[in-house]
Amino acid sequence: MKKLIAENKLKSVYLDGGKVTKVFDKKYNKSDVLYEALNTARVEDAGAKIPKLLSVDVTDGQWSITSEYVEGPTLTELIKKYPAKVDEYINKMVEYQVEFQKKSNPLLLVLKDKLHRQIDSLTNIDSSTKYELETRLDSMHNHTKLCHGDFCPDNIIADVDKDGNIKGLTAVDWVHATQGNASADIANTYLLLKLQYGEASDIADKYMDAFCKATNTQKTYVTTWLPIVAAARLAKDNKEEKDLLEKWINVVDFQ
Question: Which is one Pfam family of this protein (predicted)?
Answer without folding.
Answer: APH
